[in-house]
UniProtKB/TrEMBL annotation:
Residues 620-634 have a biased composition (Acidic residues). Residues 620-643 are annotated as: Disordered. InterPro entries: ARM-like, ARM-type_fold, TELO2-interacting_protein_1, TPR_TTI1_C, TPR_TTI1_N, TTI1_rpt. It comes from Dinothrombium tinctorium. This is TELO2-interacting protein 1-like protein. One of its GO terms (cellular component) is cytoplasm. Residues 2-202 form the TTI1 N-terminal TPR domain. It holds the Pfam family TPR_TTI1_C. Residues 572-838 form the TTI1 C-terminal TPR domain. It comes from the Eukaryota.
Length: 883
């Protein structure tokens, strides 16, 4: 019936005579909507009221000369707002359709009664009539005072409603109010209405995937509101500025009592405010010191770290991956530290961290980059870890490449000082703070790399790569992984395939930095990490870059020999070990090639022989064939001479090893046990590297011999074990050159030790004994004596003493591992002289051995052990080697 009203009848409804009836009708409809239990009837009452207002507003009879319907319905606004607030904020579960109808009705009432009345003159003349309200500034102020608390209550109740349709209708409700109501009303309530679209900008993060349209709708409205309303209304802009100032001033204090969801919602609102202001608004904020300081301090307080929750994992550093990671499209919003998520003081969930990152990202994207970088430079100079985290998030929002990052990069590098390891409990808190600060500085380098322009890339890498490599080997897991992540960011940004490719392409610069820092002994810890990393990814072709580095390391070692720092010795040890691995790999590859060449040559000779057999006259040889054969002989002679000259010329890797070995003969007697162990290990690797250069190998073995023999008299068993390993390497490379001196100066003491310890290890196959150093030395000697005898090419008589020292370990009462080692050693002895070994085995097995044939051999000494215990192991050797 209301929809079918004519214009004349509709005008009569709004006439002065009919207004009491209209007010009564509104009261009846609202009573039905609030108190009726039948939900369909309640919904129908709201729809009827909504239709009445719409018909009144759209009536063509009102042409600006008659009374504005808003003036009439404004007189009923208090009762309407009270009843609709009851429906919308009822604690009982209200039907969602009823809530949506109430919101639509309330939206129409507010936009009708609170619209701008600056051009409405007729209402002023009719203000004395009954049920007519003159909507002046005073009325708007009183109305705002009464309505805003109710509206805030409605928004607080419905903003987190489970139903998507309710939240969407609430968003439309606030949107219409903000676009159509007068600024006189919005001056004190704009923050309440803006809270809804601002909090729904990231609706897809908080709810399921079906709610993404809310985020799109809110984003569209905020963009429109920022462009159309704020730019045209200076008053509303000032109001929003004041609201932002109040928000960022109170939020750091309020978040201490808020739960996780409310903190995330508040951050989204702050993000919405920043988005709403746009480029011009943010530029204005950046120009006002007080506003700017409060905004950035609010973000820094939000990002405050919880140092008590940080796990400290020392001495567990994963190696850098050889392959680069794939870059995602949403890298700007990914967590800045993926290996171990940061712990924040005021929130724990990753979703809240992403909200904070997004807020900083939007701020960085809207600010003028030059003004922003100038302000961030001050933060980078004195900011703590939380401030630097915020700074890095903001820097990610800058879209344009620039060279203005140079000063921030310099500040970052100036604050990065490679710390000395410390384990004092009193300094743990300060150390955690310093490590978190270091992580943020390292992450910041990766962010600045993404802003680096093309012309500055090479210089950027030169200034940062050495520092990143040094921190990638730091003892703290969190710091080292952050440095590796940053290097991966550099590799991805500057189009390198992986981290190793990045280092290999810039090895010349890195080695130059290493050479400079080696001259200052206080930098030796970070230099050790960098050299180790470079050596681990290089090949023999890169060693010329490291030759000068080795010279600098040796020179620094000569000056600081007595210092307690082991890094210089580690550098030399790393050099030798890496060169050994590279040389061994190269030899394996060349062996594969040589096998292939040999196979091809055999095929060629076989085919040539077949061809020669098919010839009719094999005895006739033409002059041309003689000339060609002579040319081939000359070519072979020339190739032989060239190969001899190549052998006489020492490769660069061999010359580097010789330099290290020359220092080893002095370092081998160092008072520190660990340094002596590293030196012996270096000698073992170094001798194997130069094994093909006999003219240098043998003189070096002669120089190292007497210091090496002295180590067999060391009080530390570990040193004796390393010395024996070194002796095996020397025997393997020098062969009979060290045979006589080994038999005279080394083997007697080792054989005496084996004989004495054989009595102590008898019947001691227990875990306790197997953990002793003497047992480990026994095992190492028995495992290596056979190979040593084979490499030294010892004679029969020299073999007797070795056999005599090994046989006691054939006893079944000896530890099992010692028995196995003795059996393996005896197999080497049999290769040297099977007859002597047969005699000793048979003498140990029974009395049937014909001792007259071996009258020059000494008898086996059975003192302290029974020969019957050895029969099982003797049978094993006889079956495997003599059958």
């Amino acid at each position: 019936m209301i929809k079918s009203l004519s214009a004349e009848n509709c005008a009569n409804v709004l006439s002065a005579e009919f207004r009491p009836i209209l007010g009564h009708s509104i009261s009846v409809l609202l009573n039905f909507a609030v108190y009726e239990k039948y939900k369909d009837l309640r919904k129908l009452a709201l729809i009827t009221f909504h239709t009445l207002i719409q018909k009144s507003i759209s009536n063509s009879a009102w042409n600006g000369t008659s009374i504005n319907p808003g003036d009439i319905f404004a007189s009923f606004l208090p009762g309407i707002s009270v009843n609709l607030t009851k429906i919308l904020t009822n604690d009982d579960k209200v039907n969602r359709e009823l809530i949506i109808s109430s919101l639509r009705l309330f939206r129409v009432i507010l936009t009708c009664t609170l619209c701008d009345t600056s051009g409405d003159i007729q209402s002023k003349h009719c203000s004395n009539e009954q049920f007519i309200v003159f909507r002046d500034d005073e009325w708007f102020e009183k109305c705002s005072t009464k309505l805003v608390p109710a509206i805030r209550k409605i928004i607080f109740t419905l903003i987190s409603h489970q139903a998507h349709e309710v939240r969407k209708e609430l968003l439309i409700f606030c949107k219409e109010i903000l676009l159509n109501c007068s600024t006189k009303f919005l001056r004190s309530s704009v923050d309440a209405f803006l809270e809804v679209p601002l909090s729904m900008l990231n609706e897809d993060d908080d709810y399921d995937g079906n709610c993404k349209d809310l985020s799109a709708l809110a984003t569209e409205f905020i963009s429109h509101f920022s462009a159309a309303v704020l730019n045209s209304s200076r008053t509303l802009t000032d109001v929003i500025f004041d609201q932002i100032y109040k928000f960022v001033s109170s939020f750091p204090r309020e978040m201490r009592s808020l739960d996780e969801n409310h903190i995330a919602a508040k951050i989204n609102i702050l993000n919405g405010y920043i988005t709403c202001l746009g480029t011009s608004g943010i530029s204005l904020i950046m120009s006002m010191d007080l506003y700017r300081q409060r905004l950035f301090q609010c973000l820094i307080d939000l990002a405050e770290f919880d140092y008590k929750s940080i796990d400290r994992l020392y001495n567990f550093v994963k190696p850098i991956s050889d392959t680069g990671g794939d870059s995602a499209d949403e890298d700007n919003l990914k967590p800045l530290f993926d290996v171990k998520r940061k712990k924040f003081k005021h929130f724990n969930e990753t979703r809240t961290e992403r909200c904070l990152q997004r807020c900083c990202f939007v701020l960085g994207s809207l600010c003028d980059k030059n003004v922003l970088l100038d302000f961030l430079l001050d933060i980078s100079r004195a900011g703590n870890a939380s401030a630097l985290y915020t700074l890095n998030c903001i820097l990610r929002g800058i879209k344009e490449k620039t060279t203005n990052i140079v000063q921030i990069l310099e500040e970052y590098l100036a604050r990065l000082r490679f710390p000395q390891p410390s384990s004092q409990l009193s300094k743990i808190k300060a150390q955690i703070d310093k490590e978190m600060l270091t992580c943020q500085l390292l992450e910041g380098i990766g962010v600045l790399a993404s802003l680096c322009c093309v012309d500055y890339r090479h210089k950027f890498i030169n200034e940062t790569l050495f520092v990143l490599i040094a921190y990638s080997g730091f003892e703290n897991y969190m710091v080292s992984q952050t440095a590796k992540n940053t290097m991966q960011d550099l590799a991805d940004t500057f189009d390198y395939t992986c981290i190793n490719h990045l280092i290999a392409e810039n090895v010349n610069y890195i080695t130059n930095c290493v050479n400079i820092k080696l001259r200052h002994f206080e930098n030796i810890d970070e230099v050790n990490v960098v050299i180790t990393k470079i050596l681990n990814i290089t090949n023999l072709n890169c060693l010329p870059y490291l030759e000068r580095t080795l010279d600098e390391a040796i020179a620094t070692l000569d000056v600081n020999y007595q210092s307690g720092n082991k890094c210089l010795f580690k550098i030399l040890h790393t050099f030798v070990k890496v060169v050994y691995n590279l040389q061994r790999t190269a030899c394996e590859q060349s062996n594969d090639v040589s096998h292939e060449s040999t196979f091809k040559m055999q095929c060629y000779l076989r085919n040539k022989k077949i061809a020669e057999c098919l010839q009719i006259d094999e005895s006739v040889e033409t002059n041309e064939e003689k000339e060609s054969s002579e040319e081939q002989e000359e070519r072979v002679e020339q190739e032989a001479e060239a190969s001899e000259r190549a052998k006489s010329k020492l490769p660069i890797y061999a010359s580097m090893i010789l330099k290290i070995l020359e220092r080893c003969k002095h370092i081998i007697s160092h008072p520190d046990v660990k340094i002596r162990l590293m030196t012996l290990d270096s000698i073992a690797y170094g001798m194997r590297v130069i094994r093909n250069f006999e003219e240098h190998l043998l003189p070096m073995a002669h120089q190292l011999w007497h210091p090496l023999v002295a180590r067999f008299k060391d009080n530390d068993v570990m040193i004796i074990m390393s010395a024996f390993t070194c002796l095996l390497a020397m025997a393997e490379t020098c062969k009979d050159f060290v045979r006589s001196r080994t038999l005279k100066e080394v083997l007697p003491s080792l054989i005496y030790f084996l004989k004495c310890e054989a009595k102590r290890s008898y019947r001691k196959d227990t875990p306790a004994y197997r953990f002793t150093l003497n047992y480990k030395l026994q095992l190492q000697l028995l495992s290596g004596l056979g190979k040593l005898a084979n490499d030294l090419l010892i004679t029969e008589r020299d073999l007797w003493t070795l056999v005599d020292a090994t046989l006691p370990y054939f006893s079944a009462k000896q530890p099992r591992e010692l028995q196995k080692a003795a059996l393996n050693a005896f197999k080497f002895y049999i290769q040297i002289d099977p007859c002597v070994c047969w005699y000793f085995l048979m003498q140990l097995y029974n009395d049937r051995a014909d001792c007259d044939d071996y009258s020059g051999l000494a008898a086996v000494n059975f003192e302290g052990w029974q020969s019957d215990d050895c029969k099982r192991n003797v049978n094993v050797v006889l079956k495997e080697e003599y059958t």
